[in-house]
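Support reply, case 0932

Customer input (verbatim):
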Amino acid sequence: MPVSALSVLDPDALKDYVDLRSVPSHRFFGQSNLMDRLRNAVPFDYIIVSGLDVDHYRFGGGLSIDTDLPPAFVEAYMADKLHLVDPFVVAARSSQTPVVEAEVYKTSEVPQRLLYLQRTFNVHNRTIIPICREDAPYGTVGFTRITPFNDEEIAFLQMIAEGVYKTFTKPLLDRFAADHMKLSKGELACLVQASLGLTSENIAKATGYQAETVNSYIKSATKKLGAANRTQAIAQAIRRRLID
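Our regenerated output:
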Protein backbone atom coordinates (compact mmCIF):
# COMPACT_ATOMS: atom_id res chain seq x y z
CA MET A 1 0.00 0.00 0.00
CA PRO A 2 1.46 3.42 -0.95
CA VAL A 3 2.59 5.74 1.82
CA SER A 4 0.44 8.86 2.04
CA ALA A 5 1.81 12.35 2.55
CA LEU A 6 -0.97 12.90 5.10
CA SER A 7 0.19 14.36 8.41
CA VAL A 8 -2.24 13.97 11.28
CA LEU A 9 -0.45 16.89 12.95
CA ASP A 10 -2.15 19.20 10.46
CA PRO A 11 -5.32 20.51 12.18
CA ASP A 12 -7.40 19.98 9.03
CA ALA A 13 -5.82 16.69 7.95
CA LEU A 14 -8.70 14.40 8.93
CA LYS A 15 -11.74 16.50 8.14
CA ASP A 16 -12.51 14.81 4.81
CA TYR A 17 -12.32 11.22 6.09
CA VAL A 18 -15.57 9.57 7.12
CA ASP A 19 -14.15 6.87 9.37
CA LEU A 20 -10.89 5.43 10.63
CA ARG A 21 -10.75 2.77 7.93
CA SER A 22 -10.76 5.43 5.22
CA VAL A 23 -7.61 7.11 6.60
CA PRO A 24 -4.40 5.97 4.85
CA SER A 25 -2.76 3.44 7.15
CA HIS A 26 0.83 4.49 6.38
CA ARG A 27 1.48 8.20 6.70
CA PHE A 28 4.67 10.16 5.99
CA PHE A 29 4.71 13.40 7.96
CA GLY A 30 7.97 14.81 6.59
CA GLN A 31 9.77 17.57 8.44
CA SER A 32 8.38 18.40 11.86
CA ASN A 33 9.41 21.13 14.28
CA LEU A 34 8.52 18.82 17.16
CA MET A 35 10.84 16.10 15.87
CA ASP A 36 13.60 18.65 15.27
CA ARG A 37 13.36 19.70 18.92
CA LEU A 38 13.54 16.09 20.06
CA ARG A 39 16.61 15.52 17.93
CA ASN A 40 18.34 18.30 19.83
CA ALA A 41 17.96 16.22 22.98
CA VAL A 42 18.78 12.79 21.50
CA PRO A 43 19.85 12.74 17.85
CA PHE A 44 18.09 10.11 15.75
CA ASP A 45 17.62 9.46 12.05
CA TYR A 46 13.97 8.39 11.84
CA ILE A 47 10.95 7.94 14.09
CA ILE A 48 8.00 5.55 13.77
CA VAL A 49 4.77 5.85 15.75
CA SER A 50 2.64 2.74 15.36
CA GLY A 51 -0.57 1.26 16.74
CA LEU A 52 -3.78 2.61 18.25
CA ASP A 53 -5.68 1.68 21.39
CA VAL A 54 -8.54 0.54 19.19
CA ASP A 55 -9.48 -3.02 18.27
CA HIS A 56 -7.59 -4.37 15.22
CA TYR A 57 -5.22 -1.38 15.13
CA ARG A 58 -2.61 -2.69 17.57
CA PHE A 59 1.10 -2.38 16.87
CA GLY A 60 2.41 -5.01 14.48
CA GLY A 61 -0.65 -5.07 12.26
CA GLY A 62 0.56 -2.27 10.01
CA LEU A 63 -2.77 -0.45 10.14
CA SER A 64 -1.59 2.79 11.71
CA ILE A 65 1.90 4.13 11.14
CA ASP A 66 3.11 7.74 11.26
CA THR A 67 6.75 8.07 10.30
CA ASP A 68 9.42 10.09 8.56
CA LEU A 69 11.09 6.91 7.29
CA PRO A 70 11.70 7.02 3.51
CA PRO A 71 8.34 6.14 1.92
CA ALA A 72 10.04 3.70 -0.45
CA PHE A 73 11.42 1.75 2.52
CA VAL A 74 7.98 1.50 4.14
CA GLU A 75 6.29 0.53 0.87
CA ALA A 76 8.83 -2.24 0.15
CA TYR A 77 8.75 -3.46 3.77
CA MET A 78 4.96 -3.74 3.79
CA ALA A 79 4.70 -5.13 0.24
CA ASP A 80 7.01 -7.97 1.24
CA LYS A 81 5.04 -8.47 4.49
CA LEU A 82 8.22 -8.22 6.48
CA HIS A 83 6.31 -7.06 9.55
CA LEU A 84 5.14 -10.67 9.89
CA VAL A 85 8.66 -12.16 9.95
CA ASP A 86 10.82 -9.29 11.19
CA PRO A 87 12.29 -10.71 14.45
CA PHE A 88 12.57 -7.21 15.87
CA VAL A 89 8.84 -6.58 15.44
CA VAL A 90 7.99 -10.07 16.68
CA ALA A 91 10.00 -9.43 19.86
CA ALA A 92 8.44 -6.00 20.38
CA ARG A 93 4.85 -7.27 20.15
CA SER A 94 5.02 -8.87 23.57
CA SER A 95 7.53 -6.61 25.32
CA GLN A 96 6.74 -4.07 28.00
CA THR A 97 10.27 -2.65 27.98
CA PRO A 98 12.46 -1.11 25.27
CA VAL A 99 13.55 -3.49 22.52
CA VAL A 100 16.91 -2.97 20.81
CA GLU A 101 17.41 -4.34 17.33
CA ALA A 102 21.04 -5.40 17.82
CA GLU A 103 20.11 -7.51 20.83
CA VAL A 104 17.31 -9.25 18.93
CA TYR A 105 19.50 -9.89 15.89
CA LYS A 106 22.09 -11.68 18.04
CA THR A 107 19.73 -14.60 18.61
CA SER A 108 17.44 -14.47 15.56
CA GLU A 109 17.61 -15.32 11.90
CA VAL A 110 17.07 -12.11 9.98
CA PRO A 111 15.49 -12.20 6.49
CA GLN A 112 18.02 -11.21 3.84
CA ARG A 113 15.44 -8.98 2.18
CA LEU A 114 15.10 -6.99 5.40
CA LEU A 115 18.88 -6.60 5.74
CA TYR A 116 19.04 -5.43 2.11
CA LEU A 117 16.37 -2.77 2.67
CA GLN A 118 18.05 -1.59 5.86
CA ARG A 119 21.38 -1.19 4.07
CA THR A 120 19.79 0.51 1.07
CA PHE A 121 17.88 3.10 3.11
CA ASN A 122 20.24 3.39 6.11
CA VAL A 123 17.64 2.22 8.60
CA HIS A 124 19.73 0.80 11.42
CA ASN A 125 19.74 0.25 15.17
CA ARG A 126 15.98 0.34 15.54
CA THR A 127 14.90 0.83 19.14
CA ILE A 128 11.26 0.50 20.13
CA ILE A 129 9.53 1.85 23.22
CA PRO A 130 6.24 -0.01 23.88
CA ILE A 131 3.13 1.92 24.90
CA CYS A 132 1.12 -0.30 27.23
CA ARG A 133 -2.29 -0.48 28.85
CA GLU A 134 -2.74 -2.91 31.72
CA ASP A 135 0.65 -4.47 30.88
CA ALA A 136 -0.39 -5.15 27.28
CA PRO A 137 1.45 -3.26 24.49
CA TYR A 138 -0.88 -1.75 21.90
CA GLY A 139 1.38 0.91 20.41
CA THR A 140 5.04 1.80 20.05
CA VAL A 141 7.36 4.68 19.37
CA GLY A 142 10.45 3.58 17.47
CA PHE A 143 13.69 5.39 16.70
CA THR A 144 16.55 4.56 14.34
CA ARG A 145 20.10 5.82 14.09
CA ILE A 146 23.21 4.82 12.18
CA THR A 147 25.00 4.49 15.53
CA PRO A 148 23.48 2.62 18.51
CA PHE A 149 21.66 4.48 21.26
CA ASN A 150 23.33 4.24 24.66
CA ASP A 151 21.49 3.40 27.89
CA GLU A 152 21.11 7.03 28.91
CA GLU A 153 19.61 7.96 25.55
CA ILE A 154 17.21 5.03 25.65
CA ALA A 155 16.11 6.06 29.14
CA PHE A 156 15.33 9.55 27.82
CA LEU A 157 13.44 8.20 24.80
CA GLN A 158 11.44 5.97 27.12
CA MET A 159 10.56 8.99 29.25
CA ILE A 160 9.21 11.04 26.33
CA ALA A 161 7.73 8.21 24.24
CA GLU A 162 4.18 8.31 25.59
CA GLY A 163 3.94 12.06 25.00
CA VAL A 164 5.13 11.63 21.42
CA TYR A 165 2.71 8.75 20.91
CA LYS A 166 -0.21 10.78 22.22
CA THR A 167 0.69 13.73 19.98
CA PHE A 168 0.30 11.59 16.86
CA THR A 169 -2.61 9.38 17.90
CA LYS A 170 -4.84 11.85 19.71
CA PRO A 171 -6.07 13.54 16.49
CA LEU A 172 -7.13 10.14 15.14
CA LEU A 173 -8.82 9.07 18.36
CA ASP A 174 -10.52 12.43 18.81
CA ARG A 175 -11.88 12.22 15.28
CA PHE A 176 -12.82 8.55 15.05
CA ALA A 177 -12.54 6.55 18.27
CA ALA A 178 -15.92 7.65 19.60
CA ASP A 179 -17.53 6.40 16.40
CA HIS A 180 -15.49 3.21 16.54
CA MET A 181 -16.63 2.51 20.08
CA LYS A 182 -20.16 3.58 19.06
CA LEU A 183 -20.30 6.15 21.88
CA SER A 184 -22.84 8.90 21.34
CA LYS A 185 -22.17 12.58 22.04
CA GLY A 186 -24.43 12.35 25.07
CA GLU A 187 -22.55 9.35 26.46
CA LEU A 188 -19.22 11.09 25.97
CA ALA A 189 -20.48 14.32 27.51
CA CYS A 190 -21.71 12.49 30.60
CA LEU A 191 -18.45 10.55 30.94
CA VAL A 192 -16.47 13.78 30.75
CA GLN A 193 -18.49 15.30 33.57
CA ALA A 194 -18.39 12.07 35.59
CA SER A 195 -14.60 12.05 35.29
CA LEU A 196 -14.63 15.37 37.16
CA GLY A 197 -16.31 13.64 40.10
CA LEU A 198 -19.79 15.05 39.54
CA THR A 199 -22.89 13.18 40.66
CA SER A 200 -25.65 12.35 38.19
CA GLU A 201 -27.65 15.33 39.46
CA ASN A 202 -24.74 17.71 38.91
CA ILE A 203 -23.99 16.17 35.52
CA ALA A 204 -27.62 16.85 34.60
CA LYS A 205 -27.18 20.50 35.53
CA ALA A 206 -23.94 20.78 33.58
CA THR A 207 -25.23 19.07 30.42
CA GLY A 208 -28.89 20.02 30.43
CA TYR A 209 -29.99 16.37 30.40
CA GLN A 210 -32.45 14.90 32.87
CA ALA A 211 -30.86 12.89 35.68
CA GLU A 212 -32.52 9.73 34.36
CA THR A 213 -31.00 10.40 30.94
CA VAL A 214 -27.57 10.90 32.50
CA ASN A 215 -27.81 7.54 34.27
CA SER A 216 -28.96 5.89 31.06
CA TYR A 217 -26.09 7.37 29.06
CA ILE A 218 -23.49 6.33 31.62
CA LYS A 219 -24.96 2.85 31.86
CA SER A 220 -24.87 2.36 28.09
CA ALA A 221 -21.35 3.82 27.82
CA THR A 222 -20.20 1.47 30.57
CA LYS A 223 -21.52 -1.50 28.61
CA LYS A 224 -19.94 -0.38 25.33
CA LEU A 225 -16.56 0.07 27.00
CA GLY A 226 -16.76 -3.38 28.56
CA ALA A 227 -16.55 -1.93 32.06
CA ALA A 228 -18.21 -3.21 35.22
CA ASN A 229 -19.22 0.16 36.68
CA ARG A 230 -19.02 3.93 36.26
CA THR A 231 -15.53 4.19 37.74
CA GLN A 232 -14.15 1.56 35.40
CA ALA A 233 -15.91 3.18 32.43
CA ILE A 234 -14.23 6.51 33.21
CA ALA A 235 -10.86 4.78 33.55
CA GLN A 236 -11.34 2.97 30.22
CA ALA A 237 -12.38 6.17 28.46
CA ILE A 238 -9.30 7.96 29.76
CA ARG A 239 -6.98 5.08 28.83
CA ARG A 240 -8.44 4.98 25.34
CA ARG A 241 -8.06 8.78 25.20
CA LEU A 242 -11.75 9.26 24.45
CA ILE A 243 -11.71 11.86 27.21
CA ASP A 244 -8.81 13.78 28.76
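We compared this against your earlier run and they match. Two observations from our side: The CA atoms of residues 100 and 127 lie 5 Å apart. Residues 151-180 form the longest helix (30 residues). Please reopen the case if you see a mismatch on your end.
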